[in-house]
Amino acid sequence: MHRIMNFVYIYMINMICCTAKCQKWTTFSLAGVFVILGILLVILWDLCLLGWFHGYVNHELSLSNNKTKGYNMWKETPVPMYLQFYLFNWTNPHEIKNASSKPNFIEHGPYTYYEHHIRENITFNNNNTVTFYTKRVWTFLPEQSVGSLDDNITTLNPVVVTVGKIVKNKHVLVKKAVNFLLEEKKVKLAITKTVRQFIFDGYEDPMLDLVHKLNITGFHVPFSKFGWFAERNGSVTYDGIFNIFTGADDIQKLGVLNTWNYQNNISYLRDSCAKINGTTGEIWYPPGNNETVVLFTSDLCSSLELKRNGDYYVHGVVGNKYIGTKKIFDNGTLYPEMKCFVPEDISQQASGIRDVSQCKFGAPAFVSYAHFYLADPSYREAISGMNPSADKHQMFLVLEPNTGMPLKVEAKLQLNLKMEPVEDISLLTGIKSTIMPAFLVHADSNDV
């Protein structure tokens, strides 16, 4: 301060002693110096302030400790989420061996549940990762549903087609023995149960009990009842144990999976398809202008790559919209790198479905978009009742580019069972190999 006052004092003396021309040039020179100093101060201030601001934001977004805002939002997800089930009712199973008849399906639902996520057994690790389980709790919302949980639904019997798949290539005596058991238990190819039994409650199945006792190789269902989500509501361990990066050292790694069930590869998949990568979908790194994002889902035991598709506005906030394209369920026809999702021991399948049999305890399960949206037309043509629409069935995710905060989620996936003929199993002879829809789920978040 003292030096500045001296400088001003000298300047004033010079101005008094200087000629008019001298005063003019001195003033211009001094003004130029102050302008340059001002510009430098603004630049340096912006850089320092911006650096501090980004550092603060990144720290709060990260999971570096249990006190950041990111951690508190991640530990118990505050954003309302909903899971809607649509079940496909098979209306004409009695015509299954009629060559001129197609299986017909009518979609029932939605049966809507509020979904709440809670992280359990959280452990911070020295390599900037955190290990945890996710407990998911579902609560039925009758006021947001169409129909009752006591509605009866008829569908392809999952236990029958699973047993058929397992014994298809076994010795003829094994198949005859299985056929005898199916007939003795009076098992049917189609089964009718209530919505609640098919989803969360589950139901006892005589064939399921029997195969558990027989310990058939390849059939490892660890449940006493069958239901698509049986023994899952409120379970801490069902989805497996996750290890993700906290973003403490690099915000671009925030939420990215390091391992799932202590592995970084899926043992039964090949090449790049086997790699466990992407986020679990609830916490994201800032995507910026990334053209793709990758989502790992334990329900598929694999990843989905979504592609940038413009902007999406939520309450005036602009986000990057990422959509599911044909690539996700391609079989290598359009995208050669996707061929590694097709098991080597099965015949080539048309594009549009992903085999998740080994992820679903050996059941002949295949996942697709809802109503076979973007799939090869042959899947829809083999049955009736499918009406795919981009407006209704497109899968997409919206992320705020600077923070990675999910602004909107619309995830719609369909689980299908493969019905195929098996010699020496009377229920499975005289039928066509067909991909049969069982149900679809619509995961939806409220606009934040």
Would you give an account of this structure?
This is Protein croquemort. The chain crosses the membrane at residues 30-53. Belongs to the CD36 family. The chain is an alpha+beta fold. Helices cover 25% and strands 28% of the residues. It has nine helices and 15 strands. The protein has helices at 2-17, 20-61, 69-75, 158-167, 172-184, 195-201, 206-214, 377-381, 390-393; strands spanning 81-90, 105-124, 129-140, 152-156, 190-194, 241-245, 257-260, 292-297, 302-314, 317-323, 354-355, 365-369, 396-399, 406-419, 434-445. Strands 1, 2, 3, 6, 7, 8, 9, 10, 11, 12, 13, 14 and 15 form a 13-stranded antiparallel sheet that branches. A two-stranded antiparallel ribbon has the order 4-5. The longest helix is centred in the N-terminal third of the chain and has 42 residues, at 20-61.
SSE topology:
Elements: H1 2-17, H2 20-61, H3 69-75, E1 81-90, E2 105-124, E3 129-140, E4 152-156, H4 158-167, H5 172-184, E5 190-194, H6 195-201, H7 206-214, E6 241-245, E7 257-260, E8 292-297, E9 302-314, E10 317-323, E11 354-355, E12 365-369, H8 377-381, H9 390-393, E13 396-399, E14 406-419, E15 434-445
Antiparallel strand pairs: 1-2, 1-15, 2-3, 3-6, 4-5, 6-7, 8-9, 9-10, 10-13, 11-12, 12-14, 13-14, 14-15
